[in-house]
Each structure stands twice: as C-alpha cells, then as structure tokens.
Amino acid sequence: MHITFCGAAKTVTGSCHLIETAGLRILLDCGLFQGGRELAERNRSGFPFDPRQIDYVLLSHAHLDHAGMLPKLVRDGFSGKIVCTPPTADIAKLMLADSASLQVEDAAYRARKAKRRGEKAEPALYDMADVLRCAERFRPVSAYGEARALNDHVTCLFHDAGHILGSAFIELRTPDGTLVFSGDLGNRHQPIVCDPGTPPAADVMLVESTYGNRCHRSIEDTEAEFREAVETIVGQGGNLLIPSFSLERAQEVLFELYHLWKRGELPRCRIFLDSPLAISTTRVFERFPEYFDEEGRAAFIGEPNPFDFAPLRFTQTTDESKEINKKSDGNIIIAGSGMCTGGRIIHHLRHNLWKKDSGILFVGYQADGTLGRRIVDGADRVRIFGEEISVAARVWTVNGFSSHADQPILLDWIKQATPKHLFLVHGEEKTLDAFAGEIRKRLSLDPHIPDWKETVELS
Ligand code: ZN
Predict the structure, then answer these.
(1) CA of 360 to the centre of ligand 1 (A)
(2) What is the mean pLDDT of residues 376-383?
(3) What's the 12 CA to ligand 1 centre distance in angstroms?
C-alpha cells in the first residue's frame, strides 16, 4: 500500500489522501485549502496525481475543506465514483453549488481589477457546470456500516464520526491490511448528531488532530452561557446576533433555542434564520432524522419540531432580510458568515453593533484577521462597508459548541484501534507536535506527521 498525503498535512484544510492498493487509486476526501493566499494558491497549482486515474473518492463529510475540490477534480478529468453517506451527498451538493457561485463571483471581481491593469486574471477554480457534472458521480452507501466492494479485493465501510450530519470515519479493508481514516471526529454530547463510533482494530490509521492539544468545556457550561446571553439581551428587548456557519452549527443553535422555548425559558422574541444556505441545509436535515441522536430524534418526532416552532422565521430573500432591521427590536438573528467575513451578518452588525442594548453571541471559532476576531478581542470601533462603527453591544463567546473531538476523545479513540502505523493529519504544526508527544507518552505508539505531498510505502 502507498499513501500520498495531498492535503491537510501540517495544515487543517485541504484534506486529501491518495491510497494505492490492490490495483486501485482511491482518494480519501478532496478538500479545498482555505485561509490565506499561500494556501489558496495550492488549489490552483494542480493535483499531485492524475485525476483521470483515480477510481474512487471516499468522502468523509460535506465540509468544504474535505469536499470543496471535487468539482475541480471532475473538471480535470476524474470520471470515477464518489462514495459517501446519503446526507453527505445531499449537503455536499449544496455546499459545492454555493462554493461555485463564490468562486465565479470572485473570479469576475479579479478579472475587472486585472483588466484595469491591462492584465488577465485566472478563471474561477470551477463553476456550476462542474458542480452538476460532479453531482452525477455520487454513489452513496445506503447506511452506516454497509460494506461496499470497490473491486474483488477492497471493501469500504462508513461509520458514524459524530462530527456533522452524515459525517463518517472510513474503514478500508485491503489485502495490505485495514486502514481507518478518521475524517473529522466529533465531540461527545453534541446536539443532533451521535457520539463518534468505535473504530475497528486497524493496521493503518490517519487521524485528524485539529484540537489534539486541548480539552473542551463541558456542554452544560456552554448551554448555561448561551442561556444567559439570550436572557440578558432578548429579555431586555435588545437584538441578539448569532454569527454562524450554515452547516451544523446553525441547526445546533436552533435546537438550543427550541429547548429554551419548550421549557418556557425563551423570552418573547422572533428568531430569524437569515441565510439561504443555512435554510437549504436545514431542509436536508429534516429529511434525515434517522441520522440524529436519540434526543434529536425525540425532539423531531414532536409537533412542533426544532426547525418549525412558533418564534422561528426563515428569511430567504434579501428583501425579507432587510425587513428584519425595520421591525422592532427583541430579535434573535442567526446569519452567516460564521466569522463575519461576509454575508448577511455584516448588515446586521452595522445596524446593531453601536447599540448598547444589542448583543453578539459567538458560537464558533474566530480566526485571526477576521471581523469576528476583532470584535471578540474587544475592538472599540470596527470598519464596515467603509464606515466606522463603534462597538457598544455586549459580546459573548461560547466556546463549547465544538464539533471536533478534543485530546481525551482522540486519545481514547486511537487507543481502541491500536494501529501499527499511525499518521497525524489535519492539524496546525504546533498542535500536531504536542499531540504526537502525548500519544508517545500515553499510548506507547510512535505517530508520524507527514509532509504535504509525502508518500509512504507500507508493507
Ligand atoms: Zn469538518
């Protein structure tokens, strides 16, 4: 067996690993590099393999850093099959369509600028036509645990990773031994999704390390902080903005609000899910309640359910979105982007940041250099659409909603599989080193941290 680490090697994005075994060339994920120009350049530099020779892509889940290069793979000649779970197939198509429109928009902007310089800009990485051709290549398994034969010698199984809806860790049974790829592994006690499943005994393991060096706060503390922010702001008639990713976090926030409402702890208010992508994703969630955990299924069976309770409104169009700020205050507004780098949340921030009665509740990681991070770090003023806005609103950061396993969960998970060969991927270098040290100390295993494009041969 040969493994080439084509992405998420000493980085957290661009997840893509090429496995060559028993006459097959298999990609585990085909993700977009994100965050900064240098990483984004890798998306353009071409794949370190010939896409025409890839037989299968086994897709762990629908996040763009795992799926976002699939249309480019098809554009460059891939004609094999993409295997994943049914929710992943449906959500990935939405995410890829959204990504294609952003790519095309961005390319048009760059083309206008380049034209003024008398130069030509690079075309979009891919467009909607590529996404449609890519969509035809999906061959989902019917459920977790189904053994899908890839040829006479190799079989793959998708197991619940508990990270987002439909997410999987992948078991690949080959004549060279069993390989387990974690994809992104989930946190325990997360709303909606189940806890990560138990891995089988493995010869080779590729494990994500995003939070390999830290421990999360408990979900109880997190829910208490969430409730306090809602009570403080909305209870006093202010607007509470929740910048959120469209996939999983937005639906988890709806679940939390639904539970407050059900227990009579939600002050009188209207809740706006103000993101077309989050609305479409929520509709996919509604089709797959069998993938929810027990608590999620129970909530969903009831009437009304967490995606359809009295205070909740879905605002699809731009006009509906603009109307929100014309109405009286006392609203909860969930909008993207999650780090306030674009999207409808920017308009809501412009309308609310300067009001001392308003609140901003951050429920996800805010990367360096983003508007979200500047607000979290306590900026007095920020620039929005070229206008200086003072920050008078109260700011909460609730960190415990992570959909990634922390160090204790990851260590436990690796221990159950006791692999002969362990590779740590999907982490920042500092985190990977710390996590590797902990594994050597606690599990007596000797993990390898591969470089980008490194190939290893295992026999
Ligand atoms: Zn993910």
Answers:
(1) 24
(2) 96
(3) 10
Identity at 444, one-letter amino acid code = S
The rounded distance, in Å, linking the Cα atoms of 24 and 300 is: 42
| Average pLDDT of the residues of the chain | 95
CA of 381 to the centre of ligand 1 (A): 32
> In what order do the strands lie in the sheet containing 155-160?
148-149, 155-160, 168-174, 177-181, 204-208, 421-425
181 — phi, psi (to 5°)? Answer: -115, 120
- What are the E-state strand segments in 293-365? 312-314, 331-335, 359-362
Measured in angstroms, how far is the CA atom of residue 66 from the centroid of ligand 1? 7
* All domains of the chain in start order, with CATH: 2-214+403-457 (3.60.15.10), 219-401 (3.40.50.10890)
The pLDDT tens digits for 155-165 are 999 999 999 99
**Euclidean distance between the first and final Cα of the chain, in Å?**
6
Query: Beta partners for 273?
Result: 314, 334
Res 338: pLDDT: 92
Give the pLDDT confidence of 277-310 residue by residue, as tens digits.
Answer: 999 999 999 999 999 999 999 998 888 999 999 9
Whether the model clears a pTM of 0.85, i.e. scores above it, the answer is: yes
Among the ranges given (193-202, 285-294, 321-330, 340-349), the one the predictor scored with the smallest mean pLDDT: 321-330
For residue 177, how far is the Cα from the chain centroid? Answer: 30
Strand ranges inside 209-341, DSSP E: 240-243, 270-273, 312-314, 331-335
Cα(184) to ligand 1 centroid in Å equals 5
Q: For residue 329, what pLDDT is reported?
A: 85
Helix (H, G, I), strand (E, B) or coil at 66: helix
**389 alpha carbon – ligand 1 mean position (Å):** 33
Percentage of the chain beyond pLDDT 90 is 90
